Amino acid sequence: GVGRDDSMKKNIGRIISATLIILAMYHLVVFLIPFVHTDVFWAAYGFTLAAFAVAFVTLYIAFVRKPNARSQFYGFPLARLGVGYLGIQVVAGLVVMAVALWLPLWPVLLVFGLLLCAALLGLISTDTVASEINRQDVTLRRNTTLMRDLQSRIMQMSAHCTLPEAQKELKALAE
């Protein structure tokens, strides 16, 4: 409905705003501190920008894609993983930038590449688990509704039944 659309727009607005503010702060730190801009610096910078993108997409998937409360609750582990990866990458990236003159490029690419891959695999598996839980919740609600409907119909049948023994069995079945 309309309320859901407004909530979705507000959530996406908040996520974009927060991401842009943190990204601006990151750029202030990175470009005001006199880091030497070597290939290692740029690799750390690039992987950190990728981490911002991963965190943004993760927050979108966790809190905007399915804006109902249950989906958002299940989205918290996903969001925590995406934001946690961003935090680790920002800190590690700044440390690498500080010592960029003394580091070869290949270990930086290897470590940050593995970290990105691990984060992406974790996000995929976390999203898969959340989707499965949502699917099971829907199935459970459907089955519960069906069982209540059957119970109601059996109780109606027992009320119209004239045989005391059959009425007793129908009530027992309904319970």
What topology emerges from the helices and strands here?
Blueprint: H1 2-32, H2 39-63, H3 69-98, H4 105-160, H5 164-174
Outline the structure in words:
This protein is about 85% helix and about 0% strand. It is elongated and about 95 Å long. The longest helix is centred in the last third of the chain and has 56 residues, at about 105-160. By secondary structure, it is mainly alpha-helical. The protein has helices at about 1-30, 40-65, 70-100, 105-160, 165-175. The model has no long low-confidence stretch (mean pLDDT about 85).
Overall mean confidence score, pLDDT: 86
The radius of gyration is 27 Å
- Uncertain segments: none
SSE ordering: HHHHH
Amount of beta strand: under 5%
Overall shape: it is elongated
Number of helices: 5
Straight-line distance between termini: 37 Å
Give the structural class: mainly alpha
- Name the assembly state: single chain
Tell me about the largest β-sheet: none
The amount of helix comes to over 70%
User: Total strand count, please?
Assistant: 0
What can be said about this structure in brief?
The chain has 5 helices and no strands.
List keywords for this structure.
5 helices, 0% strand, mainly alpha, elongated, single chain, 175 residues
